[in-house]
Every structure is written in structure tokens, then in C-alpha cells.
Design goal:
Blueprint: H1 2-17, H2 21-32, H3 47-62, H4 75-79, H5 126-130, H6 136-141, H7 155-163, H8 165-169, H9 183-187, H10 190-203, H11 207-220, H12 226-238, H13 242-255, H14 259-271, H15 275-288, H16 293-305, H17 309-322, H18 327-339, H19 343-355, H20 361-373, H21 377-390, H22 394-411, H23 414-427, H24 432-445, H25 448-461, H26 467-478, H27 482-495, H28 500-515
Helix pairs in contact: 1-2, 1-3, 2-3, 3-10, 10-11, 11-12, 12-13, 13-14, 14-15, 15-16, 16-17, 17-18, 18-19, 19-20, 20-21, 20-22, 21-22, 22-23, 23-24, 24-25, 25-26, 26-27, 27-28
């Protein structure tokens, strides 16, 4: 009879290992409805406790998000940030002023920048999406999540939305009533406590209760269990207590070297805007774990965010020496070659991604551009057609039409270019680059008023781009509106200080004004 009793539990464990979490949870629910007196063989736990533990793990896995990669800094975090950070950081020590350390990368004339002043990367990550808007209005308007038209709201809001999954997974109410749990009792049982912590943290998204449990458990372990210290650090990080989180992660590293702990600690330093400390930490980690891909990749990302493109490329190459199928490294090296005027080499990297089985709109879009600039015209249009076919949303479609507009300008078909840029705006009405290029085409037709209106729209949508400001300055100067021209030229110079044409225009205008 006891053999028969073990059978469903083994079945549930098998489901769990095969990642069939829904079936596993259902089977555990049936086991939990039985009378719970039977003892598990070779264990101090009863079948009931084993089923309870397995069900908590299955429910956690359904909504599990890796905390290391989940790093969205929302509007609330950016605008309401109370951490005092030096306003004028030394050059090359801050992520908020990345333009200060030009590390041999291409200028904004060649490689477009995001609103935070960083060059566009080859790989979309939450941190590269949002950037650091300078005003509340800009924050609400521009930072987009990867797919939605909603701005990235507070990160805590994102976690709460993940937490609502607890209602979906249990139609008849929550599996564990947290308010009635005696956390001190569970903290005495390390095996159950760990499963329960993960459940509270990921599934119920109740950081405060999770922190209480972790504090009791680490006390019970006499502060000798590094795992609990990392979990306390994660809770502090979520609550915005970065210095306390730093202490916990450092203490955990003293007891046990773990790659994940290095990554969590680096996240804390990056949030505190201390990239140099994070770099040193990653290098210490590499002394302990030579050739660890995630650590090398972390160094490369920081260099890329600090605008030090040449160092970033070197580290991405090191990543490929360890793991030659690392998508992020291949994509970033590819985009770096493309913007360094080596489209043929970039094409090889993107083809490598295609051979690896990456098959999406972005890849075919990049292949189309590389083929066009490498003068392989036969492949260009078929790549863009494939990209349009694979586009999953309007923003991706807009990108493809915008690039097709560039191809049309390149072959001299301005009517086609005009249509392409219009289609870009149909799909994404906030596409500043398309407004700018349409304005240039309108200027060629002699439609000055339309061109001015389009350029004003472009510069209000993307104040970080220098092109709309510069074009508006040139246009205003041509029609004799010198004051507006001077104002726009100054904005252009602020966005791209090294732009020679802007400097010449400002010099001309100053001469005009001095004559007046």
C-alpha cells in the first residue's frame, strides 16, 4: 500500500523535471487532499510535506523571472531617485554622462545615439531601452519597452503585474495564505524554507514577507548559509536599499564564491552609477572563475554603455572565444563593424546568427542593410521582404520601411523614398528620423513650410538627435529667420559638439549678428 502511495508523487516529480508545471501542481493538489500521516521512505518528511514543497516549486517555476536579467529602471525609479550621486562626475566614471569618454567609437554622425547619449547597441536589453531622460515629459514620451507602446513604468509595477499570476494559477484562491503563516516555524526547516521563499518572492511577489523569512532562516543557520544572504540582498535590491544589498552580497561572497553573486553585486553598483567599481568587481570574478562568459559579457556591456566601443568589442571577442554561439556578442560585434564602415564583415556575423537558427525581423533587416552597403543589391530587397513578413508589430514594420526609404534614396528613387518614409509614420507616428528625412525630401521639392513643420516635430520627438536641429537651422537661415536658426544651431551643437558644419553655421550667424 505504501508503494502505491509513492507512485503519484514520483509521477509529479517526473512532470516537474519535464517542465510540465501545470500537471505537476494538479497532481500535488490531489495528494494534498489525502489524509496526511504517511511517512516518506528514507526521509524525515511526510508525503504531504513533500507534495507541498513540490507544488510550491512548480508554481514558482511557472512565473519565474531571472532577477539578474530583469532590470528595468522605470520612470518612477529615475525621477524619484533619492540616492545622492555626484552631479558632476569625473569623465569616464558615470553612466549618466557617457559622452565624456569617447573610446575610439564612431561619432554620432555615423552611429546614431539613444536619448541618453549612448550609441545604439547591437542587442536590445532593458537597460539600453530606456536610457536616462532628463525631464519628466521626455521620460513619459520616449522610453519604450521592447514591444509595447507604453512607456516603461515603475519597475515595481512590472513585478506586481507578474505577481498577479498567482490569481491565474489558482482559480479558488491562493495556495498559501501568507498572512497566517508562522514564518519562524518554517525557518527551522531549511529544505522547506528555501522552496517557500522562492514561492513568496517570485509567485506572490511579497518582498516584505520574503525578507522576514530570509532573515529568520539566516539566523537559524547562524549566518553561515551564503544562499540566504544572497536572497536577503535580492529583497533589499527590490526595495531600493542598495547599500544594504551590497553588504549582504559582499558577506555572501566571503563565504562562497558564486558567479550569480558577482552579477547581483555588479547590478547594485550599476544602479548606484558606479561602473568603474562594477568593472573591477567583474575582473575579480574572472580571477576566481577564469573564462566565465557572463562576467566577460558584463564587462563588455559596461564599456558599451560608457561609450567605449573599442574595449567593448575586444571583450565581446573574448566572449566568443569561450562560447562561439553567444547571440549577444555576435550581434554587438556585427553592429560595431557595420558602423565602422565594414558592412562585409558585419554581414558574416549576421549570417552566422542565421546559421545558428535566429530567424526574426531584426536579423533580416540588418542583413538587408549590410547587403545594400556591401553593394550586394540582389539580396537587399529579398532580405527586407522577409523582414516585413516576419515583423511582429508595427514598430518593427516601421523600422523596415525606414531602411527601405534609405535604400530608395541610395538608388536615387526619391518618390519611392517618400512613400517608404510615409509608411514608416503610418506604422509608428513617433519616428523622429522619418520626419527628419521627409523634411529633407520636402525641401528638395521646394515645400519650405511643410519641411519646417516636419523638422519641428522631429526635434520635439527626439531632442537628443542633432540632425533635425541642424536641418532646421540651415532652413531658417535660408529664409532669413536668423534668430531661430541660431537657437536651433545651439541645440545641434549641444547634441553633437564635434559637428563641424554646425560650428561653421554658428560662426556665420555670429558674424551676421555682430554686423547688425
Amino acid at each position: 500500500a505504501s508503494g502505491m502511495g509513492l507512485e503519484p508523487l514520483f509521477q509529479a516529480w517526473s512532470y516537474f523535471r519535464r517542465r510540465k508545471f501545470r500537471e505537476c501542481a494538479d497532481l500535488c493538489s490531489q495528494l494534498l487532499e489525502r489524509p496526511h500521516g504517511e511517512q516518506e521512505l528514507d526521509s524525515e518528511y511526510t508525503v504531504f510535506q513533500a507534495a507541498w514543497s513540490l507544488k510550491t516549486r512548480a508554481l514558482t517555476e511557472m512565473v519565474y523571472v531571472d532577477e539578474i536579467d530583469m532590470d528595468q529602471e522605470g520612470i518612477a525609479e529615475i525621477i524619484l531617485d533619492e540616492n545622492a550621486i555626484a552631479q558632476v562626475a569625473r569623465p569616464g566614471t558615470s553612466l549618466k554622462l557617457p559622452g565624456t569618454s569617447q573610446g575610439g567609437g564612431p561619432s554620432p554622425a555615423v552611429r546614431p545615439v539613444t536619448q541618453s547619449g549612448r550609441p545604439i547597441t547591437g542587442f536590445v536589453r532593458p537597460s539600453t531601452q530606456s536610457g536616462r531622460p532628463s525631464t519628466m515629459e521626455q521620460a513619459i514620451r520616449t522610453p519604450r519597452t521592447a514591444l509595447t507602446a507604453r512607456p516603461i513604468t515603475s519597475a515595481s509595477g512590472g513585478y506586481v503585474r507578474l505577481g498577479t499570476a498567482s490569481m491565474l494559477t489558482n482559480p479558488d484562491g491562493p495556495f498559501i495564505n501568507l498572512s497566517r503563516l508562522n514564518l519562524a516555524k518554517y525557518a527551522q526547516k531549511p529544505k522547506l524554507a528555501k522552496a517557500l521563499f522562492e514561492y513568496i518572492f517570485h509567485h506572490e511577489n511579497d518582498v516584505k514577507n520574503a525578507l522576514d523569512l530570509a532573515a529568520l532562516a539566516t539566523e537559524h543557520a547562524q549566518f553561515k548559509d551564503w544562499w540566504w544572504k544572497v536572497q536577503i540582498g535580492k529583497c533589499y535590491y527590490r526595495l531600493g536599499l542598495y547599500r544594504e544589498a551590497e553588504k549582504q552580497f559582499k558577506s555572501a561572497l566571503k563565504q562562497q564564491d558564486m558567479v550569480d553573486t558577482f552579477l547581483y553585486l555588479a547590478k547594485v553598483y550599476l544602479r548606484l552609477d558606479q561602473p568603474v567599481t562594477a568593472l573591477n568587481l567583474f575582473k575579480q570574478g574572472l580571477d576566481r572563475f577564469p573564462g566565465e562568459v557572463t562576467l566577460i559579457c558584463g564587462i563588455a556591456r559596461i564599456y558599451e554603455e560608457m561609450n567605449n566601443i573599442s574595449s567593448a568589442a575586444e571583450y565581446y571577442k573574448d566572449v566568443l572565444k569561450q562560447d562561439n554561439t553567444h547571440v549577444e556578442a555576435i550581434a554587438c560585434i556585427g553592429s560595431n563593424h557595420f558602423y565602422s564602415d565594414q558592412p562585409e564583415i558585419a554581414l558574416r556575423f549576421y549570417r552566422r546568427l542565421l546559421q545558428m537558427g535566429v530567424y526574426n525581423c531584426q536579423l533580416f533587416n540588418n542583413l538587408g542593410l549590410c547587403c545594400f552597403y556591401a553593394q550586394q543589391y540582389d539580396m537587399t530587397l529579398s532580405s527586407f521582404e522577409r523582414a516585413l513578413f516576419l515583423a511582429e508589430n508595427e514598430e518593427e514594420t516601421a523600422d523596415v520601411w525606414y531602411n527601405l526609404g534609405h535604400v530608395a534614396v541610395g538608388i536615387g528613387d526619391l518618390n519611392l523614398a517618400y512613400q517608404c518614409f510615409k509608411l514608416t509614420l503610418v506604422n509608428n507616428n513617433d519616428y523622429a528620423e522619418a520626419y527628419n528625412n521627409l523634411a529633407v525630401l520636402e525641401m528638395r521639392k521646394g515645400h519650405v513650410e511643410q519641411a519646417r513643420a516636419l523638422l519641428q516635430t522631429a526635434s520635439s520627438l527626439a531632442p537628443h538627435m542633432y540632425e533635425p536641429h541642424f536641418n532646421f537651422a540651415i532652413l531658417s537661415e535660408k529664409i532669413g529667420d536668423l534668430q531661430r536658426s541660431y537657437t536651433a544651431a545651439q541645440k545641434s551643437e549641444a547634441a553633437f559638439p564635434g559637428h563641424v558644419d554646425t560650428q561653421q553655421l554658428i560662426k556665420q550667424l555670429k558674424e551676421h549678428f555682430s554686423m547688425l
